Fold each of these.
Amino acid sequence: MKILVVGASGTLGSAVVAELSKRHDVISASRSGDVKVDVKDAASIKAMFAEVGKVDAIVFTAGKAHFGPLSAMTPELMDVGIKDKLMGQVNLVLTGTEYLNDGGSFTLVSGILATEPIKAGTNASLVNGAIDSFVVAAAIELPRGIRINAVSATVFEEAMEHYGPFFRGFKPVPVADVALAFSRSVEGATTGKIFKVGYV
Amino acid sequence: MKILVVGASGTLGSAVVAELSKRHDVISASRSGDVKVDVKDAASIKAMFAEVGKVDAIVFTAGKAHFGPLSAMTPELMDVGIKDKLMGQVNLVLTGTEYLNDGGSFTLVSGILATEPIKAGTNASLVNGAIDSFVVAAAIELPRGIRINAVSATVFEEAMEHYGPFFRGFKPVPVADVALAFSRSVEGATTGKIFKVGYV
């Protein structure tokens, strides 16, 4: 398969590229990669697809949200996650559908905060919940046998230095295990599923 | 209790006002009501709270989303639900917290499409999923014993003329039953709960 991985330069993206490139032709896109894309910018998304052309799978492994207390939350801080992790991925689906071959797939990235909240996590929770529900809904409308799933993991072992204080008591998972869920989505036949990794 | 109902003029809002006003002092706000508010406008929300003052419960019963096929979806159409039903309610929570008395409550409105998709429902699904997850996350951070829940119902009997074609096979519920869930949220003691009405 020819697979486009968007956000390939991050912790998760690198692990997903490592897993999928064992068996497939992987194109890596990121803000600083060979193929450049800023998912907050619809024109940048269009330019990326024009450069890459048709693929068999589109995988998203990045997305920013704001972490901070509800008492200091503002509409502008809520927009951080809405414009980046949420609408970045939604716009990649809306634009990317025509670049997927028949029977192709989207795999989005969500996260455990959709249902397991932490302090300072309202923006991430909102965004992850939106992604999960979008995936379930888009799955029944995509044309030509195109599938869509999301991977929703707990905190990664490799990210504990930064995110550990937010996730006390959560058992982290190796990011390589999360990459396996992306493989299941891309190389399996399921659609409309949220692959949960490391939920206790 | 002194209860502010935002969106009081709609089908759901009228039923919630009818239920709660049996026992409480209800203030009705809507785009055309005695107390005027446009939830898409942060300044309008602030003006409403300045006019109403402190209350014991804030209830939301309105919110628009776009219904249309995924194949014709655009970022702008996705924004319809994000700016209205989603961020309208989030901003009402962010601004309204300081206007709630100790132990007060928010009750938001979500919907069955968060997990039970229909064709043409991607915007509503995304928005409802975001609201459910926001409620779960905000519940653990609100101060002074303030609670927050959402009511997530299936299609209303009273709305079948308009929404029936979208919801074939769904068993509609009387909107008065949905209003009872708002009463349970406001007059109960639960927080962080999605009250599901008419899920089969």
Amino acid sequence: MIRRADSGPYTGYEQTGLPDEDAELTHVMPGSPGGEYLRRFWHPIALESEVSDIALPLRVLGEDLVLFRTLDESYGLLHRRCAHRGASLEYGKCERRGLRCCYHGWLYATDGELLEAPGEPPDTPLLRSVRQGAYPVEVNAGIVFAYLGPSAHRPAFPIYDTFDVPGTKRVPYVYHYPCNWLQIVENAMDPVHAVFLHTRNHGPSFSEAWGQLSVKEYHSADEGFYYTNARRVGDNIWVRVHHVILPNMTQAGAVLSMDGKTPRYFGRPSFTRWVVPVDNENSRAIAWANFGDRSDAQREEWMTPRTIEIIEGAEPRKRSRAEALRKPGDYEAFVSQGRITRHAKEHLATSDKGVALFRRRLRGDIRALADGSAPYSASDHRQAPIPTYAGDNVLHMPPVDGADDAALILDVSREVARIIVSANHLDCEARDTYVRAALVDLQARHAPRSRT
Amino acid sequence: MIRRADSGPYTGYEQTGLPDEDAELTHVMPGSPGGEYLRRFWHPIALESEVSDIALPLRVLGEDLVLFRTLDESYGLLHRRCAHRGASLEYGKCERRGLRCCYHGWLYATDGELLEAPGEPPDTPLLRSVRQGAYPVEVNAGIVFAYLGPSAHRPAFPIYDTFDVPGTKRVPYVYHYPCNWLQIVENAMDPVHAVFLHTRNHGPSFSEAWGQLSVKEYHSADEGFYYTNARRVGDNIWVRVHHVILPNMTQAGAVLSMDGKTPRYFGRPSFTRWVVPVDNENSRAIAWANFGDRSDAQREEWMTPRTIEIIEGAEPRKRSRAEALRKPGDYEAFVSQGRITRHAKEHLATSDKGVALFRRRLRGDIRALADGSAPYSASDHRQAPIPTYAGDNVLHMPPVDGADDAALILDVSREVARIIVSANHLDCEARDTYVRAALVDLQARHAPRSRT
Amino acid sequence: MIRRADSGPYTGYEQTGLPDEDAELTHVMPGSPGGEYLRRFWHPIALESEVSDIALPLRVLGEDLVLFRTLDESYGLLHRRCAHRGASLEYGKCERRGLRCCYHGWLYATDGELLEAPGEPPDTPLLRSVRQGAYPVEVNAGIVFAYLGPSAHRPAFPIYDTFDVPGTKRVPYVYHYPCNWLQIVENAMDPVHAVFLHTRNHGPSFSEAWGQLSVKEYHSADEGFYYTNARRVGDNIWVRVHHVILPNMTQAGAVLSMDGKTPRYFGRPSFTRWVVPVDNENSRAIAWANFGDRSDAQREEWMTPRTIEIIEGAEPRKRSRAEALRKPGDYEAFVSQGRITRHAKEHLATSDKGVALFRRRLRGDIRALADGSAPYSASDHRQAPIPTYAGDNVLHMPPVDGADDAALILDVSREVARIIVSANHLDCEARDTYVRAALVDLQARHAPRSRT
């Protein structure tokens, strides 16, 4: 039951009731339209450090699985229940060729082949007819990725430019959220929350500059969205570029160190992150925190579990409820929306433009797949590695007396975006050199005018 | 599946199965007939002492809310999820004018008005179109009350005579029960349980006099029921008056000190108590324990949390399961009926007369509201404060040789009830004087006869 | 949603989804076909040692009950909620004649008769019309049994020969499993799991001989199944006989001591065990561990709670998850199949013959009852006590050069089974003497041939 009448004081009774979930966008279980869509992409599923000599039980996209490493260091991802009599393979034994079920010793290869059924005759036809459900796996810099979709539609494993930024160290991490994936990932399209949640309301989690409302401009791309989030900081214009790659990958600029005071040209993201549904009501963010001079520096006190929690969620995760109530971070903002946010109860505003764009695109792509059109994927990229845009750009561009500074900031942010996306045809190093030079040049062209 | 055949030994199989819940009487969620009915009354929702400088999440009548206090000491009760993007306002910041959401800084007044949407343009139409669900609040002697019904039908906030008994101190308390409200409140219509649960079965929780079967008489009134519960104690007749005001307010006499041995004329209730549904399967009793010479005296050792638990439930709440099994109190009797008692499995007896009366009246009032007739409420009372009747009356009236003492007790209890309800047109002080004098007179009129 | 395509590598996506439960076989709640079937038998419901001077709440076949012992040592099993107003009788008081409800003092006899309703008039018709649901109870050697079916169909309480094996001590135990009963009991029809789960995969839980694949032969009987599980151990042939009596009783040979090296003639079971459903998703194994020279000897270090856990489940129950992952036992194999195994996802093999037989028989018996045919029960047995067959038989029979040893083992196992079941018409002692002599004779007849 829902009542609505948004007028007058004390309208609690008139607004009683919870609308249905937006199942098309939020539900991810096997067979759901959203689940089918998400299964068309590679997703990180665990950290290598979570895997030991024992199989690791996991739940991904609503499915119970085990991840294991054979004695010759291959990874396998199998349906959790043994195809024989259903015992969980988390009690299996990791051997050289695969995983052996505890109950009757059936041995499965990493691709699901039944290699041995030792209680059966040697020539048992089961060796040909039984296949344990299995998914292909890729490992990259401490993170295990898997593809859970139909084999015929498996896209290339995407390699992004940020996998190899010179002087940058990737530190993998995982972070659990007991809520739906969408309310986590769409936050990456909403830079306004940082002004309030992370700065003004309860004191700054990062630098004070984050508390200033910014000039934002969103750009659509084949792979998703990038947008600029620009502010004046003294004589500098700080243009932060965010990049959200469908369905669930996000990158942004530096977190711990960025205050807009030091010039930076083509900064790179401090995290490369995916928000992966466990099921409809649980998610895991799996990511690298990227430490280096182009993001947050490789300072010892920053490369700690606690500081990485701050990169992920602005506040440390392990703290008392009293602390969380007095200084909420992203975790509290996401999870307190309920296990699945009810969109029909929201009042989206101009500052939610990014959220609205993301939902519209997501809905369109889910429907397109249901109609037979596969989503844009890594296989559709012409370049390898795939270029990405996120990072901070801080240009020395003092305000001009008598000129409209907001217009200037908007102009500059547009130009920064244009420069960054303009060199995708170059290889990584050449592109980097070109973009940085063009940004310095952009700054220089402004200089004379500002001296008047 | 329910089988029934109540005859012969060992009929377990024939009586297997649980009938449906009596949803009409027990369900309270928004939109349910019972919930709509309950929303037509003011209910206590929290103690003032539960509210700090941080918003308090509450669930009342199946709805998630936050209660908060602004910096200038006004109380507000809002829907828990922010009207903007659904973050919980329990993480909000209490300011001078209202509560500010942690996520994007929207500021709500106590009546739900959107005062600020700081990430939006200053002239945003949202300030006019958005209303956070809100409910009006009243505070009285440490308890916060709210009205959750339609604004057009808001009754006067009820002030009862027991809110101001000279020489009496009201101590607020709250007590959680993981079960439906009805099985708690209807116990107040059942004085027989005190004979067994609180006295005979496991030894007395109060005085021994409670273990004697009493003479009971029930009276209907516009606002609910009052009844007399009368016993002989030596040369005294102890007439305890209980008052149950629909839907969920109960008052009775003294608890800790009453043994029927000391004369008392127009004693007043030792608790003023409401049983408020959290949802269908949880409830909170919110009440004042009233300490004074007319109820339980203001003795230091009685005005403790543990003793107040005994006033509420006959036994302390914090104890081991072993202790609870050996000396169950009201908590065990209520909660062990299951989350919602199944009425169709019961066998009501003559001693359940009060329970049956209460259910019948409640069902009638719920149906009447569904048919468009509002329930009797505080606004319908001619007097203010509203007179109530509960308390102990102990008259010195020795038994008369050769006379029917049970008939005498019944006569006296009728006369006590008649006297107490007869002076409602007087103001509080005058009424008190009148009733006490009339009771003393009643006792005196008996005296000569008892000396024969 | 279920997809199926058991071919090719990486078929995880194609095999996604969980089929429905096999409700006919696994569901046990009141009114379900399986529940009705199970209610036609006596089941153990608790240990005597679980019952104190306070009533014990139990859940059996999906029904909430209380088991209690009166002051004159009779046992009663009643529906948990009082027929009056539904308070739980677990808070009742055990008296000489029965159990008295805490709430209003109603007193029930062990057969459910309402003996007193002390708040009512002495001649209340309730004493005739109210019956608390009750079930008949039998106690045997520390275990309390009950019959939960229709009174008219109550079978005789079954007394088995193993209740009285000279020199054997029965030690009762109970063991909880959070899963359906069927996946526990059908394991008793699957001797192959012992080769892998208990021996080869993670090192032996018992002796090394258990790790050798055996020659198995299944036999159907009116009361269920018995089967032989035979191996060569050096110059001995070890024929282990298992006996599964419908619906849920299992017996097998020795556990702690059996290695096939010492001759044994007509060994008797080391446990007499029932797997009793609590509800669809929980079960309790209630059993005697039988210590004596014919099973596992009465050694002090074996008659401990920890060792009895090993008899029940091959590994101790109280241990860390890390230990369980490295050396799973029966508990992990049963419970990790999920609360209810999904049969439609399994791939039964030749070694699951016993499981398949058991399910087929169970389904037939459940359907037969639904069609009006009562299952075979203790009342149908001509003998008392009822003969059973389980135990170890180790015969000195060296392999014969040039002869087919597997054929010999099969022949011997058939002959052992034939001998054991052939003397059911004799009384216990005579039967024991006869079977042992016949087994010694069988061994002797082989001797000359093996010396060639």
